[in-house]
Amino acid sequence: MTDSAKRFSQNPILSPKDLVPSRPGLEIACLLNPGVFTFQNKTWLLIRVAERPQQKEGIISFPILKGDGIEIIEIKENDPDLIADDPRVINYKGADYLTTLSHLRLVCSDDGVNFYQPEGYPLLQGEGPAEAFGIEDCRVALIDDTYYLTFTAVSAEGVGVGMRTTKDWKTFEKHGMIIPPHNKDCAVFEEKINGKFYTLHRPSSVDLGGNYIWLAESPDGIHWGNHKCIIKTRKNNWDSKRVGAGAAPIKTEKGWLEIYHGANAEHQYCLGAFLMDLNDPSKVIAQTDEPIMRPIAEYEMCGFFGQVVFTNGHTVNGDELTIYYGAADEFVCGAKFSIQDILSQLEYNHAD
Questions:
Q1: Of the candidates 165, 56, 177, 84, which has an alpha carbon nearest to the alpha carbon of residue 128?
Q2: What φ, ψ does residue 87 adopt, rounded to 5°?
Q3: How would DSSP label each residue in 309-328?
Q4: Is 155 exposed, middle or buried (0-12, 13-18, 19+ CB in 10 A)?
Q5: Which of 43, 173, 308, 311 has its CA 20 to 30 A from that of 33?
Q6: Measuring CA to CA, how many Å separate 212 from each of 24, 77, 202, 268?
Q7: What is the gyration radius of the CA atoms in the chain, in angstroms?
Q8: pTM
């Protein structure tokens, strides 16, 4: 398997110990999957910060949002109604819960490597019943002068896509859940095509279908329809179990280039790429057979949930693509690619 990423020598660039918990009594378990944008001549990350209570021996405790605060739920580890074989999710008396509660936090950098948390910018937290288990994995798209934030909204009722918009990163307009459960990995194109907004998203089906990438269009960037499946999992391949969009597609002379994640049955997450037609993004022109990046560094192999590289944010400077990614569901890292190198790895004869 190939790997063409040039990882930052400073990786991980952010770890849980580098930030302060949002509330007393909580600890930061993981930093994950930042959205990325430029603002005021700086590189900004909108990091998913996953928190939990400080754990007591023999007890699993986790927070959920309730009203304007949080509720801590505690369950004995030997409770016969508890199923806790995944560090991310537990099942108790038939109901699923997350072991952490995630919010989104802004950090910025002058050099794209050394980040700090600026004063005067709010934490973005879940609000209301549809976000009671938190908000996660935000993508950021700049269209005209407005930043569109699409994120995973999690609750006991399901996992859907929420949206907020902003111009100044201090005040936000909330648009609620724009794509209902079960859905995530929503990446909005940063340019209208034939007068319409477009987005990639990833519904999931437990019966027919699978964890595939779909395309949707919109007249206003908020209300979405005309959904089409464009990328499926591939049997016996590195992306055999699930696929999902990364950040906003990158416009190139050959087409819209999308960096996506794929996972196999062993839950190893790698990155690949596919190319869409410039005028009709429902047409996939080409796709990489092999990953462009896979978990090989120690900080990608070992962590809260190992064997993971996952991106939903990048910056583009000419041919240089800088991705920021979550490693092992615990650390934030960076890597650089050549866009032309990625384009050269695409297999046109394998496109559907």
A1: 177
A2: -65, -15
A3: EEEEEEEEETTEEEEEEEET
A4: buried
A5: 173
A6: 40, 35, 6, 17
A7: 19
A8: 0.95
CB 273 within 8 A of CB 348: no
Sheet holding 146-155, edge to edge: 135-143, 146-155, 158-166, 173-179
Cα–Cα separations (whole angstroms), residue 316 to 38, 43, 149, 169: 10, 11, 18, 21
**10 Å Cβ neighbour count for 40?**
9
**Residue whose token pair is 């269009």:** 217
What DSSP state is assigned to residue 238?
T
Residue 208, pLDDT score: 84
The closest alpha carbon to 185, from 148, 212, 157, 158, belongs to 212
Nearest to 237 by CA among 287, 176, 197: 287
Distance CA 313, CA 323 (A): 6
Our CA angle for 48, 261, 253, nearest 5°, is 110
- Residue stretches of the chain with pLDDT short of 70: 1, 349-352
One DSSP character per residue, 71-92 reads EEEEEETT-TTEE--SSSEEEE
How far, in Å, are 33, 170, 238, 304, 321 from residue 314 at the CA level?
Answer: 11, 22, 22, 23, 7
Q: How far is CA 115 from CA 128, 130, 147, in A?
A: 31, 31, 21
Lookup: tokens for 29: 């378990």
**Tokens at 111, concatenated:** 């050099």
Taken in order of first residue, the domains within the chain and their CATH numbers are 6-350 (2.115.10.20)
Give CA–CA dist 338/343, Å, rounded. Answer: 9
CA distance 243 to 269: 9
Joined together, the tokens standing for residue 196 give: 């319409």
Q: What torsion, rounded to 10 degrees, do the Cα atoms 259, 265, 266, 267 define?
A: 40
Partners of 300 in the β-ladder: none
Q: Which amino acid is at 189?
A: F
Q: Give the chain's largest Cα–Cα span.
A: 59
Whether residue 263 contacts residue 272, with contact meaning beta carbons closer than 8 Å, is answered with no
The CA distances from residue 237 to 62, 71, 189, 288, in Å, are 36, 42, 27, 11
